């Protein structure tokens, strides 16, 4: 019986239960080849989100799986937003960008090229809604990936952010602003004439800011 403070007892109880549940999920849905569930991209994304295995290893497997499927994300409406975040956190924003800029179907561009001017429920538009927000989670990546702004996992009331921009080779300049409970966080970066990158940011007073950029990037 726990004889420490009630908070500590509750924490220990929840941690023990969480570990038990993860073990049960792993036993039921983990596969010998490192895949999860039915072996899809979505299975890998959810496994990472639930902390069932090392997220970097899962991300590498996801990148391989996407490449095997011609660069197409088949993660569905829930798995896609998780995959975008996972790939960015683990240094694979180039995979997300390749998917978002893909021309041939299935793709966002092919979906919009139909002239409908709205996202559909499915990329293969067969018996589906032609005006749906199903795959609008790419907007998340614009802020987290290109803008580099991500509220830290251990933040309370958005009091901590991680700035880790993806310096895309497809553009030379990006500016981004995210309004949080603490105030507005702003980032901007540009590619200079000599090819180097200049990065600047501002954050509300009192907010903890963790900047993660490659060596050689000029922080202003």
Keywords for this entry:
single chain, 220 residues, alpha/beta, Maltose phosphorylase, domain 3, 2 domains, 4-stranded mixed sheet, 3-stranded mixed sheet, 38% helix, globular
Architecture overview:
With 220 residues, this protein is an alpha/beta fold. The protein has two domains: 109 residues, no CATH class; 72 residues, Sandwich (Maltose phosphorylase, domain 3), CATH 2.60.420. 38% of the residues lie in helices and 16% in strands. A four-stranded mixed β-sheet has the order 3-4-5-7, with no helix packed on it. Helix 2 runs antiparallel to helix 3 and helix 4 packs parallel to helix 7.
Helix and strand topology:
Elements (H helix, E strand, L loop, with lengths): L5 H24 L11 H9 L5 H14 L7 H14 L3 H8 L7 H5 L25 H9 L2 E3 L8 E4 L9 E8 L2 E9 L5 E6 L5 E4 L6 E2 L1
Helix pairs in contact: 2-3, 2-4, 4-5, 4-7
The biggest beta sheet reads: 4 strands, mixed
Question: Given the C-alpha coordinates, what overall shape results?
Answer: globular
How many strand segments? 7
Residues in β-strands, percent: 15-25%
Q: How confident is the prediction overall: mean pLDDT?
A: 93
Helix content: 25-40%
Per DSSP, the total helix count is 7
Helix and strand sequence: HHHHHHHEEEEEEE
Based on helices, strands and strand pairing, what is the structural class? alpha/beta
* Distance between the first and last residues' Cα: 55 Å
Q: What's the domain count?
A: 2
Short description:
The chain is of the alpha/beta class.
């Amino acid at each position: 019986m726990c004889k420490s403070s009630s908070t500590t007892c509750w924490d220990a109880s929840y941690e023990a239960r969480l570990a038990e549940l993860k073990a049960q999920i792993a036993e039921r849905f983990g596969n010998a080849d490192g895949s999860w569930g039915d072996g899809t991209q979505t299975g890998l994304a959810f496994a990472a989100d639930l902390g069932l295995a090392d997220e970097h290893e899962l991300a590498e497997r996801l990148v391989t799986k996407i490449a095997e499927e011609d660069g197409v994300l088949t993660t569905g409406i829930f798995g896609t937003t998780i995959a975008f975040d996972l790939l960015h956190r683990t240094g694979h924003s180039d995979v997300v960008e390749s998917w978002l800029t893909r021309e041939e179907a299935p793709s966002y561009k092919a979906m919009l090229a139909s002239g409908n001017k709205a996202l559909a429920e499915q990329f293969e538009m067969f018996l589906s809604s032609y005006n749906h927000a199903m795959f609008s989670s790419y907007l998340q990546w614009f802020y987290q990936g290109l803008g580099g702004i991500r509220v830290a996992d251990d933040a309370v009331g958005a009091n901590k952010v991680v700035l880790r921009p993806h310096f895309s080779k497809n553009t030379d300049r990006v500016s981004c602003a995210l309004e949080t409970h603490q105030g507005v966080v702003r980032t901007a970066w540009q590619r200079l004439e000599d090819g180097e990158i200049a990065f600047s940011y501002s954050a509300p007073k009192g907010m903890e800011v963790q900047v993660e950029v490659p060596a050689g990037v000029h922080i202003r």
